[in-house]
Amino acid sequence: MAATNQLNRSLGLTLVIVLVVGNIIGSGVYKKVAPMAHELHSSGWILIAWIIAGAISLLGALSNAEVAGLLADTGGEYVYYKKIYNKFFAFLFGWSLFTIIQTASISSLAYVFAESLNSIVKLPPVLENLKDVHIGKWFFPFADLNIKLTAIVVIILLTWINNKGIKAGTGFSTALMILVLAGILLIVVFGFSSEHANIKSVVEMKTTTGVPVTFTAVFTAMLAAFWAYQGWASTGYIGGEIKNANRNLPLGIALGTLIVITIYLLANTAYLSLLPVQKLEAVYEGNNQIAAIEAVRVFGGDTGVLLISILICITTLGCTNATILVSCRPYYAMAKEGLFFKKVAKLNNSQVPENSLLYQCVWAVILVFSGTFDQLTDMIIFAVFIYYGATTLGVFILRKRMPDAPRPYKVWGYPVVPAIVLIFCAVLFINTIYSRPREAAIGTVLMLTGVPLYWWFKKKNPDNTGVES
């Protein structure tokens, strides 16, 4: 079959929900309760942080769903921002996806996959004598090199699979998601029924340090929770490949997000009932330890550890695959308009943007070397909430600019719900600058590299016609 420049609309509602859930459930459900314990020192406050983050994510998803239903097309927010704001802001978003938001997500997920694999089969050390080599005492590119090299192999392999066609990618995600949901539910059931479970301890509000929980600590802990919820908006990037996208895209986003919130609350309640907060703090300090593995060790011993490690491998593999699948589409949409590298606008014989996948793969591999898992995820959340706020603001703008346009879905509780999301995004943005200045600075610099590149692309394509379809 000859290659064309048109994407196929082949995905129904079920696969949209699969992609939403598959994009969200990754490493966070297993790992992020530990850094939250490090910040809050209280199981009750940890659970509250998960609930608030889930509620805000759902309200954000509902707000996003109205915009997605109205403007659904390949590229997601890149397409929305062109119509809501202008091409410059849309490009800055697309460039942020490439430099940090989506590529760092791929790197982080692959990193946790490698950590889990290492807990099953000890990976041989690589260049241990270089582990203390650093750049400005921020980055240690050769530390845990065996983990990083494994993550790189995973990124390359999944990029190759997704190069075979979107059906191949979504089919792989569906199979993995079924295994993941079954595995997490088993952990919840066995965790709650274990003789070691202490359900009463889950609602303990007193901190282990004796110091009251602060506003800043709650928001900093929610950076971790938001990483776990991150990904629901990514399905909008493949709007041009969804059947009846104006209906199925917003519905899929809302239903998928609700499924994930339920799973996360059950799983984290189980962890907190099995592990005291002090133990979770020690897990965080242990770097390559994973909270879910330590929780399952309590009731499952070595056999349980093996099974949960396999499950985490499957989960992170599935989420990495789903993220790779959807993330390359915005760059394709940008390139078709002359606002990205020209070769990225090419589709292969499977009607997949193969060069977009390749560029994404190369940068994600570089980011694997740049820092630890938590460094990467804090940078991502700082950047992504800028754009979550921009999309939510778009609900108000489009209601005023296009009052009579058909809307398959209208956000529940307008204008209160989108207003809450906007305020929360602003507070989290400011708090991150205060509590994580290094990650905020790196994220800002990476995003702003798009400013000179925008004018460079504009100069190369003065008519902004891009590649003909």
Q: What is the percentage of strand-forming residues?
A: under 5%
CATH fold annotation: Amino acid/polyamine transporter I
Task: Kindly report how far apart the N and C termini lie.
Answer: 17 Å
By oligomeric state, this entry counts as single chain
CATH superfamily: Amino acid/polyamine transporter I
Task: Name the helix and strand elements from N-terminus to C-terminus, one letter apiece.
Answer: HHHHHHHHHHHHHHHHH
Q: What is the class in the CATH system?
A: Mainly Alpha
CATH hierarchy: architecture: Up-down Bundle
Helix content: 55-70%
Question: What features would you highlight for this structure?
Answer:
469 residues, mainly alpha, Amino acid/polyamine transporter I
Brief description of this entry?
It contains 17 helices and no strands.
